[in-house]
C-alpha cells in the first residue's frame, strides 16, 4: 500500500518541477502576442489620428470658403462707397474715353493682347501689351483719393511701401493710382512686376474684371520671369472667367500649367478649382 502512495508523490513532484520549464517554453509565444496587440493598438491610434487630420482639414477648407465669401461681400460694399479714381494731373473737364469697337465674332486670335471689349489672345512671349485705356473722369470728391495716390519722395522701396500701405488699408482707388504711378516711374525696378500685379488686384477686388484682365495680361507680358508672373496668369484666367469668356480663360489656365509646371501646390490647387469652374476640358 505504501508503494502506490510513493509513486503518486513522485509523479506530483515531477509535475511541479516541470511547470517552470513549461512557463519558460511559452514565454516567446506570449511576447509575440503582446507585440501583435501593441501593433494593433498603434494602427488603431494612427487611423484615429488620420481621421482627426482629415476632419481638421475639412474644417479649415470650410473656414477658408467662408472667409473668401466674406471678403468678397466686404469688397462689394466698399466699392459701392468709393468714388471713381482720378489719374494724377487729369483735368476735371476731361471727356470719357470713346468706347472701343467689339471684336468680330469668332475673332479669338490668342496672339493679341486683351482689348477693352474683352477679347483676349494668348500672350506672346515677346509681345508688348497696349496700355489700358484711361479711366472715366473723376467724380465729385475724388480729389482726396487722387492726392492719397500720389507717391511721396524717397527711394523706390519707400514709394512701393506707401502704395502697399494704401492697398492694405483697402483704399483701392488711391492704391490703383499709386501702383500705376510706381510702374510708370520705375518700370525696370525689381518691384515693378509686383506693383503691376497689385494694380490688377485693385480692379479685381472691385469686380472691375475688364481692367483687371488688362492689368494682369500686361503684368505677365512685361514680367514673364517675375515673382508674380504665375499669379498674373492665374488671375488673368479668373478675370476672363468672371467676364464669361470661358474659352479664353481656359487658354490662360493651360498656359499656367505649361509655363509653370513647378508652381506651388496652392497655385496648382487653385488652378484645378478654377479650371473646373470654367468647364475647361
Descriptive overview:
The chain is an all-alpha fold. Among the domains are: 30-81; 143-278, Tetratricopeptide repeat domain (Serine Threonine Protein Phosphatase 5, Tetratricopeptide repeat, Alpha Horseshoe), CATH 1.25.40. Helix content is 65%, strand content 0%. The chain contains nine helices and no strands. α6 runs antiparallel to α7 (229-242). The model is unreliable at 82-142 (pLDDT under 50).
Helix-strand category: mainly alpha
* Structural Rg: 34 Å
> So what's the overall shape?
elongated
Q: Please indicate the percent range of residues in DSSP E strands (runs of 2 or more).
A: under 5%
Q: Return the CATH topology of the domain at 143-278.
A: Serine Threonine Protein Phosphatase 5, Tetratricopeptide repeat
What's the name of the CATH homologous superfamily of the domain at 143-278? Answer: Tetratricopeptide repeat domain
Number of helices: 9
CATH class annotation of the domain at 143-278: Mainly Alpha
Assembly category: single chain
Portion in helices = 55-70%
Order of helices and strands: HHHHHHHHH
What's the CATH architecture of the domain at 143-278? Alpha Horseshoe
Low-confidence stretches: 82-142
End-to-end C-alpha gap: 100 Å
Number of strands: 0
Average pLDDT for all residues = 73
Largest sheet: none
Amino acid at each position: 500500500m505504501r508503494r502506490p502512495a510513493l509513486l503518486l508523490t513522485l509523479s506530483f513532484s515531477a509535475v511541479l518541477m516541470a511547470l517552470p520549464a513549461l512557463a519558460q517554453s511559452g514565454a516567446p509565444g506570449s511576447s509575440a502576442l503582446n507585440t501583435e496587440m501593441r501593433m494593433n493598438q498603434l494602427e488603431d491610434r494612427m487611423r484615429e489620428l488620420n481621421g482627426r487630420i482629415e476632419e481638421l482639414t475639412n474644417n479649415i477648407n470650410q473656414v477658408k470658403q467662408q472667409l473668401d465669401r466674406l471678403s468678397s461681400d466686404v469688397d462689394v460694399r466698399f466699392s459701392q462707397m468709393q468714388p471713381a479714381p482720378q489719374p494724377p494731373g487729369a483735368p476735371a473737364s476731361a471727356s470719357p474715353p470713346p468706347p472701343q469697337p467689339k471684336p468680330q465674332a469668332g475673332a479669338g486670335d490668342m496672339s493679341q493682347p486683351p482689348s477693352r471689349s474683352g477679347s483676349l489672345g494668348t500672350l506672346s512671349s515677346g509681345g508688348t501689351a497696349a496700355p489700358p485705356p484711361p479711366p472715366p473722369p473723376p467724380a465729385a470728391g475724388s480729389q482726396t483719393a487722387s492726392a492719397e495716390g500720389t507717391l511721396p519722395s524717397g527711394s523706390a522701396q519707400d514709394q512701393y511701401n506707401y502704395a502697399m500701405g494704401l492697398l492694405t488699408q483697402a483704399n483701392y482707388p488711391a492704391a490703383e493710382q499709386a501702383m500705376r504711378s510706381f510702374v510708370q516711374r520705375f518700370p525696370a525696378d525689381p518691384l515693378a512686376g509686383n506693383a503691376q500685379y497689385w494694380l490688377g488686384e485693385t480692379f479685381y477686388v472691385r469686380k472691375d474684371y475688364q481692367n483687371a484682365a488688362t492689368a494682369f495680361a500686361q503684368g505677365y507680358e512685361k514680367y514673364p520671369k517675375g515673382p508674380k508672373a504665375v499669379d498674373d496668369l492665374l488671375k488673368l484666367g479668373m478675370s476672363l472667367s468672371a467676364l464669361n469668356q470661358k474659352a479664353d480663360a481656359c487658354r490662360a489656365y493651360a498656359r499656367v500649367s505649361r509655363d509653370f509646371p513647378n508652381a506651388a501646390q496652392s497655385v496648382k490647387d487653385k488652378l484645378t478649382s478654377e479650371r473646373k469652374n470654367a468647364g475647361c476640358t
